[in-house]
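Example 317.
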Amino acid sequence: MANSILSGKVLQNEAAAIAWVEARVWPEGPVCPHCGNCNGDKIGKLTGKTARPGLRKCYECRKQFTVKVGTVFEDSHVPMHLWLQAIYLLCSSKKGISSNQLSRTLGVTLKTAWFMSHRIREAMRFVGVAPMGGGGEVVESDETYIGRREGVGRPRAGSYHKNVVLTLVERGGSARSFHLDGQAISDIMPIVKANVAKDSRMNTDEGPHYNDLKKEFLEHKTVNHKADEYAWHTGDYVDGKPYVVTTNTVEGYYSIFKRGMKGVYQHCKEKHLHRYLAEFDFRYSNRIRLGVDDVERTERAVKGIVGKRLTYRTSHI
Ligand SMILES: [Zn+2]
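Predicted structure in complex with zinc ion:
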């Protein structure tokens, strides 16, 4: 990163911001979202005084478009450079950034800030089928309880009234989290099987819902938290490093997640929980230790804006 992106033109100047996003969404040149035409000779740039910045016209289907069409930015009147400022802030703040803070920093209304941050979370959402682990790598799985489920009465002792989150973390790699519908522990095995390669070493606690992992994966080893056991050495090596059985990595993920949810996102509704999880997964999976700095993380989030526009049908922003 040569210069601070915050002082850069891309975050301050609308034309520069649009060009920057275009270069990431259309690395091979513009594509008409209406008919799929990607022949640059048949796409014109409308530059008249009344034309919106970045407006193009397709000479195949005669329709107009900008890079926002078909992305989470569609239907939004927020200028692109403000979108990029918001994305950069969400990407570079380890525990996230509240809509209140975003609203003050960007000078937009709280409502606009709220919709922007939810759309950015949508851009951050992992889509893909590539399994985690594989090749004997270690994948940790664990659950945590957070917030309050709706419609289950007053909070009471235990975890009955809370939401259950399942998280898979590939040691030295990415994280994927899932909000389990109504505490359905029976959902855990199908999710683990669908997301983790068979030739992985699974590390979990001794929860009975993990009993079948042994049959499905290269290996399943546990730590016995009830006996205050948090890590034990197997005597083997994985990737040249001593193989330690533990769920400390996924617990480290939860500690960041919970500090963020407590400090920054106090009023997260149950129906939005999966979006916050996507945000924390994204930052974790694109962290500095994996060689991803704030700018690169921002770029990756921008690449995720495509094809996710249908989540919020709103014209408020
Ligand atoms: Zn077209």
